[in-house]
Amino acid sequence: MAISPDPRKNHLLAALPDAEWLRWLPQLEAIELPLGKVLYESGSTLNYVYFPTTAIVSLLYVLEDGASAEIAVVGNEGIVGISLFMGGESTPSRAVVQSAGHGFRLRARTMKDEFNRAGPVLHLMLRYTQALITQMAQTAVCNRHHSLDQQLCRWLLLSLDRLQGNELVMTQELIANMLGVRREGVTAAALHLQEDGLIRYARGHITVLDRQGLELRTCECYAVVKKECDRLLPNKLAT
Predict the structure, then answer these.
(1) β 48-52/101-107 pair status
(2) Pairing of strands 167-169, 205-208
(3) Taking a C-beta distance cutoff of 8 angstroms, is the pair 125, 232 a contact?
(4) Could you say which of 16, 73, 205, 210 is the most buried, measured as most Cβ atoms within 10 Å of its Cβ?
(5) How many Cβ atoms from other residues are within 10 Å of residue 139's Cβ?
(6) For residues 114 and 131, what is the distance between their CA atoms, to the nearest angstrom?
(7) pLDDT digit of tens for each residue in the chain (239 aa)?
(8) Separation between Cα atoms, residue 96 and residue 41, nearest integer Å
(9) Radius of gyration of the chain measured on its C-alpha atoms
(10) Which residues pair with 72 in a beta bridge?
């Protein structure tokens, strides 16, 4: 796959004012993000922040026994590595590419210097961070109170918002790891959605056939996350 030449396919980068954009452009490094690539591990010091353009990155919390659950997804609307400029330097979560594609990375020192200028970059990143925190909180509520069918619909919709088309390359095992459930549960939920004509699933490919049907089927958590993203970020960032 050819590397995407346009950093402004990432909405945060597209929202940078001209002065900041001209400073950043020579520093941005185009990278390929293959499925399953780990961008950082729990507790590791971040050397880069990442701006996906066509890839989706899952933020996972991994327990001592190896079990995991997704706490948020980041795609072309955002940045991976907020702990770097929030002052923590590291994070207890793991960042893994859940949908292959491309993106750009920026060195940690450059990101911190830009954030510490206390200008437009600081305000843009803080608004994005608030939107991401909302997604994390709503994910926790959803996983506790809503059915697996509803969780799967929410997860599919959040992923679709960050992709160009209507197809995801994703195995049931990977979805199970994201949602923190047994693979058999994902199989049953996916079959229900397929029987109702909402998706088609075959050999790791999920094709969404009826997005409106998914929106009607899911819980309120998807709408809460989307509304907050739309509220906090510029219009061209809205997914």
Answers:
(1) antiparallel
(2) antiparallel
(3) no
(4) 73
(5) 23
(6) 20
(7) 444 469 999 999 999 999 999 999 999 999 999 988 999 988 888 899 999 999 999 999 887 787 778 889 999 999 999 988 887 777 888 999 988 899 999 999 999 999 888 889 999 999 999 999 999 999 888 888 988 888 889 989 998 898 888 888 776 777 776 676 777 777 788 888 889 999 898 877 889 999 999 999 998 988 999 998 888 876 544 33
(8) 9
(9) 17
(10) 59
Residue 17's pLDDT is 92
Do 85 and 111 contact (CB within 8 A), yes or no? yes
Q: Which residues pair with 62 in a beta bridge?
A: 68
pLDDT at 118: 84
Q: Do 146 and 108 meet the contact criterion of CB atoms below 8 Å apart? A: no
Instruction: Name the region of 10 (left: φ>0; alpha: ψ -120 to 50; beta: rest).
Output: beta
> What is the set of domains in the chain, with CATH numbers?
7-142+233-237 (2.60.120.10), 147-218 (1.10.10.10)
The total of other beta-carbon atoms located within 10 Å of residue 38's CB is 12
Euclidean distance between the first and final Cα of the chain, in Å? 25
92: left (phi over 0), alpha (psi -120 to 50) or beta: alpha
Going from the C-alpha of 137 to that of each of 83, 134, 150, 217, 221, the distances in angstroms are 17, 5, 16, 21, 10
Return the residue matching tokens 């970059």.
121
